[in-house]
Amino acid sequence: MTFITNIKTFAALGSGVIGSGWVARALAHGLDVVAWDPAPGAEAALRQRVANAWGALEQQGLAPGASPQRLRFVSTIEECVKDADFIQESAPERLELKLELHSKISAAAKPDALIGSSTSGLLPSEFYEGSTHPQRCVVGHPFNPVYLLPLVEVVGGQHTAPEAIQAAIQVYESLGMRPLHVRKEVPGFIADRLLEALWREALHLVNDGVATTGEIDDAIRFGAGLRWSFMGTFLTYTLAGGDAGMRHFMAQFGPALQLPWTYLPAPELTDKLIDDVVEGTAEQLGSHSISALERYRDDCLLAVLEAVKTTKAKHGMHFHD
Ligand SMILES: NC(=O)C1=CN([C@@H]2O[C@H](COP(=O)(O)OP(=O)(O)OC[C@H]3O[C@@H](n4cnc5c(N)ncnc54)[C@H](O)[C@@H]3O)[C@@H](O)[C@H]2O)C=CC1
Ligand SMILES: C[N+](C)(C)CC(=O)CC(=O)[O-]
């Protein structure tokens, strides 16, 4: 079974936060991009998002011929996918919607064009159930902003061919990404299970009046957040065990897991909790607009990526090590 991996035309369905991030990444890699989104005003919003991202992409380096002008917005699903070499769906996170959309996408697409879904945690076996040629269908779960963050989790469903997983990994690599094959199909995959655990605890801390949203963000950004950009939890905690390493760490800090410090179930999303979170984050945002904050985030990310790359090289490592 072979699938198209040398892609020239990228199709994006759904052009909100994530779809527009894919569009910007694909354009920056010198591809032709065709996009579709049913919302009124979607084309203008997409072009605005791409323009907002373009400065960061220029700083990172564009592929020869890369241009926002190579984006074509079309009015039907069929027109969007029929000539595409690779298709990425970024529609709202609703199982029924994705199920119906994928039956239309896959029926109109070339049979050897891979189809990826940006879902954050729905199961591909479920939403590709009605798809034509489901062996080429995968999840390619990205991270926001998609045009800068390298990670993409690649997950297959029960009908996905192993060759399709490998081919999708190849395509995502050609877009400058760092694919992580999630070998077992589980809800939330790997990264969102971790992120959701943190998010749940953060909401409990607000709900219990322990800290404001700003204080919780400070607890992350001045501490673990800084080290997470180059070293994950396991290696970090190996160092926390000193010369005795992980075995000593487990003996010393493992029992605290039983105390417990954390709650597993999520807090109830009461109106008060939602108001506290919305008002807290509005205060953090201050007078900055969302697009100004996006540009600030992108500048920080570019600087961090560059610093990590250079420091690793100094220690004889590659960025992906
Ligand atoms: N926002 C995030 O941080 C992340 C989201 N994702 C996933 O990406 C997908 C899209 O999420 P967002 O971009 O955040 O949502 P969004 O709400 O920003 O964008 C969704 C877009 O889909 C469009 N849409 C509505 N009905 C549609 C249909 N039937 N077919 C195609 N498009 C349709 C909407 O008009 C909208 O532009 C979801 O599956 C989500 O789980 C993945 C990683 C991160
Ligand atoms: C909140 N979220 C589940 C949509 C987050 C993601 O899927 C990944 C990210 O960018 O944090």
UniProtKB/TrEMBL annotation:
Compartment list: Cytoplasm
Ranges of residues in domain 3-hydroxyacyl-CoA dehydrogenase C-terminal: 188-263
3-hydroxyacyl-CoA dehydrogenase NAD binding domain mapped to chain residues: 11-185
Annotated positions binding NAD(+): G14, S15, G16, V17, I18, G19
Family, similarity comment: Belongs to the 3-hydroxyacyl-CoA dehydrogenase family. L-carnitine dehydrogenase subfamily.
Pathway: Amine and polyamine metabolism; carnitine metabolism
Subunit field text: Homodimer.
InterPro entries documented for this protein: 3-OHacyl-CoA_DH_NAD-bd, 3HC_DH_C, 6-PGluconate_DH-like_C_sf, 6PGD_dom2, L-carnitine_dehydrogenase, NAD(P)-bd_dom_sf
One Pfam family hit: 3HCDH
Entries under NCBIfam families matching the protein: PRK07066.1
This protein's record includes keyword Transmembrane: no
Name recorded for this polypeptide: L-carnitine dehydrogenase
Example GO molecular function: carnitine 3-dehydrogenase activity
Enzyme Commission code: 1.1.1.108
Swiss-Prot/TrEMBL keywords: Cytoplasm, NAD, Oxidoreductase
